[in-house]
Amino acid sequence: MKVQKLAELLGAKVLCGAEKLETAEVDYVYAADLMSDVLAFALPGTLLLTGLTNIQIIRTAQMLDLPAILFVRGKHPQEETVRLASQVGLPLLISDKSMYETSGIIFQAGVAPCPIPERGE
To answer: How far apart are CA 11 and CA 97, in angstroms?
Structure first.
């Protein structure tokens, strides 16, 4: 699904990267505030839902080739975070909805969660 469609469904505000919203494709969604979890479980093509606002979130998104980041709970990223995202062409969006509600809306729209690898127990 296109990031533009998801932004419309959520009534999300676009902070930067608006020019990429119509072409950026989301295959999965992952919701987390722990970057170690994002690094372990997110796949390329994943829309990241988070409340983290620091610059590390952009570095993580670059490493994983994420198409966009959506900040939940109305959180606004730090200025340096927005600046770096603009420089690297990464769309940033803000939703006033909770992470739970945002995840539910996206799930109902048909976007799959990132698959969690089976644990060898």
So the answer is: 9
